[in-house]
Protein: HTH psq-type domain-containing protein
Organism: Dreissena polymorpha
Amino acid sequence: MAVKDNQMSIRKSALYFNVPKTTLIDRLHGRISIDTVKPGPDPLFTLDQESLLASHIQTMGEVGFGYTRQETINLASDYAFTLA
């Protein structure tokens, strides 16, 4: 924002905020949204959906039907498919 408001140069902003100069340039030219705070795609599940899935997995484990890693992946995939 300091660069957009003409308060600092890109180089000074990069040094002051400890951000790579190329990152600032990408954001200023619109290659990366200014609102993006982390790399990678957006999460598939909301926090509530993820919490519900985790709670189900924990409950099943407590009653003696724990899922294997592959079963957990399949369960999450099926859940994501039904939400889409």
Remarks:
- The mean pLDDT is 88.
- The helical segments are 10-17, 21-28, 47-62, 69-83.
- Residues 1-40 form one domain.
- Residues 47-62 form the longest helix (16 residues).
